[in-house]
Design a protein that fits this description.
Blueprint (H helix, E strand, L loop, with lengths): L1 H27 L3 H89 L15 H46 L2 E2 L2 E2 L2
Helix pairs in contact: 1-2, 2-3
Length: 191
């Protein structure tokens, strides 16, 4: 229906252009009264028909647009309901799955944190943590256990080195004491 009104307006546009040209030619020839008659009897009526046809097309388009808007609003409301249902289901599933997973991750991380704090406080007697699984938390647990074992070894080696250094220091002290009892004579030490 809209296309019929548009086609009608297009057909009338050709007639309108011809009537306008006729009126302009008459005016240019100085025949003003005849030009006025063409204006009243041909140009204005064709113009009114064009206006009517385009008005009908516009009215029909507006009606179609309103119907399309209502349908779009109905579909949007339906989509919102579906979206809300899917979102609610997603949240429920995320909670059902996420809480146990979060707990399974949080507990080992919490244990790692406690061990790290104890080691930072100087307590190397902390027991190694059990390694469970093959994920990043298990890798971190293995790394903390390795670090703890390395620190213990390092402390033992430092203690052994300190003992050796202490023994060497005592020996040097004894040699120094003996050297101070001998006095040089003529630039040489006395036996």
């Amino acid at each position: 229906v809209v296309l019929q009104h548009v086609a009608e307006a297009q057909d009338l546009a050709g007639t309108y252009a011809e009537a306008m040209q006729k009126m302009m030619d008459l005016r240019d020839d100085g025949l003003v009264s005849q030009a006025t008659t063409v204006l009243k009897n041909e140009v204005i009526p064709v113009n009114e028909k064009i206006i009517a046809a385009t008005g009908q097309a516009a009215a029909r388009l507006q009606l179609l647009a309103e119907e399309a808007t209502l349908e779009a609003q109905r579909q949007a409301a339906s989509a919102r309901l579906i979206g809300a249902a899917v979102t609610s289901l997603g949240v429920a599933l995320a909670l059902a799955i996420g809480i146990p997973v979060a707990r399974s991750l949080a507990n080992p991380v919490r244990q790692l944190s406690q061990v790290a704090l104890q080691v930072a406080a100087g307590d190397l007697t902390v027991a190694e943590l059990p390694v469970r699984g093959g994920d990043e938390v298990a890798d971190l647990t293995r790394a903390v256990n390795t670090m703890l074992a390395s620190l213990r070894t390092l402390i033992r080696e430092l203690a052994a080195s300190a003992a050796t250094l202490g023994d060497a220091s005592e020996a040097l002290g004894a040699v120094a004491a003996q050297a101070t009892h001998r006095r040089p004579v003529g630039g040489q030490l006395r036996p």
